[in-house]
Amino acid sequence: MSDSIVIAYLGASKIEIGRSDLPCPQEITAWKTETIDKENEQELKKIFENYFQTYDYLKKEETHVLILEGIFISVAEKRIICGIILKELGCAYVSFIPRVLMYCLSCDVMNALVIDVGTNSTTCVPIFDLRPLQKYIRYSKRDKRRHLLDDTLSSCPYTPVFFKKEYDPKDYEDDEIPVINLAKYIVDSLPIDLRKPLRENIIVVNVEEKYKTAIKALFKQHMDESSIRLSNDYWRGASIYAQKILHAKEENVVGVGKDEFQNNLHIAPDWFDFYFRTGIK
Fold first, then answer.
1. What order do you get walking across the sheet with 255-257 strand by strand?
2. Is 225:172 a contact under the CB 8 Å cutoff?
3. What pLDDT, on the 0 to 100 scale, is given for residue 273?
């Protein structure tokens, strides 16, 4: 394991990169593509190349890159990322972790329902003991982009995204359910002993500062038993995790080294497979 870790947040609208021992990212780059594929592989490579050229005191051959991945990232996308970081740039190691867990670490909780309000969709991820409960993860096509661009809305533009007063499940496709209604559905679907700890810790992320008060009030009105936190701070959690894996054995980290990848270019570390197969916390 290398002695230097660089964190990379791969979002739907931006990529943020920086050293794990710093309080915030060093570089933030616009990224308009939701997925990573062969068409934008070179663009992604250039972003990482520019970072390492700017901060050339970092020795790539000794650097561990920690990728904060989206919850629905594909194995094909991970192979492309590994190829760029390990084969093209020559970094020592790359590892992956779902970025929703970083919000839990930042808020000092192990159990939560994390609602990530994205540009193109909203994901609801129940987490228990820092494990995403894969069976219960849901997403909604209700996103903030179309509503934030609507100047005719006089109140909080998130209201139509989050809640429908006259809600009837029969009127909606599974991926069009309003977010608060979806959150209630997920909590009610959980095993009984998990409902209370997750209902009491709801973390809503990626909401603009000026709308936070209205969103918190909306949740309190319709999920009055819940403790609502609004957070955009994933970096603190990522730094905590990075310091932990610096001292961990490689077999306890979901990642791959340069030599191992070059011997098998089809390797793509899968966090969910590793986590549930090994039971490591």
1. 27-30, 14-19, 4-10, 63-69, 93-98, 255-257
2. no
3. 61
pTM: 0.86
Q: How far is CA 153 from CA 118, 147, 176, 218, 231, in A?
A: 19, 8, 20, 16, 24
| 86: Cα within 13 Å, side-chain hemisphere | 27
- In Å, what is the CA distance from 114 to each residue of 73, 82, 101, 122, 124? 17, 27, 9, 10, 6
Instruction: Please write down the long-range contacts of 21-24, taking CB distance under 8 Å and 24 or more positions apart.
Output: 21/239, 23/235, 24/235
247, pLDDT greater than 70: no
Confirm if 143 and 119 have CB atoms less than 8 A apart: yes
pLDDT for residue 22 is more than 50: yes
Alpha helices in 111-189 (DSSP H): 145-148, 159-162, 179-189
Note the pLDDT of residue 280.
41
Q: What is the CATH number of the domain that holds 120?
A: 3.30.420.40
DSSP-H helix ranges across the chain: 41-54, 75-82, 100-106, 145-148, 159-162, 179-189, 192-199, 212-222, 235-246, 258-263, 271-278
Same domain membership, residue 186 and residue 123: yes
**Residue 262: predicted pLDDT:** 87
Instruction: Report the number of distinct structural domains present in the chain.
Output: 2
Domain span including residue 243: 4-99+235-278
255 and 203 in a common domain: no
115 band by pLDDT with thresholds 50, 70 and 90: very high
Among residues 231, 250, 265, the one where a domain terminates is: 231
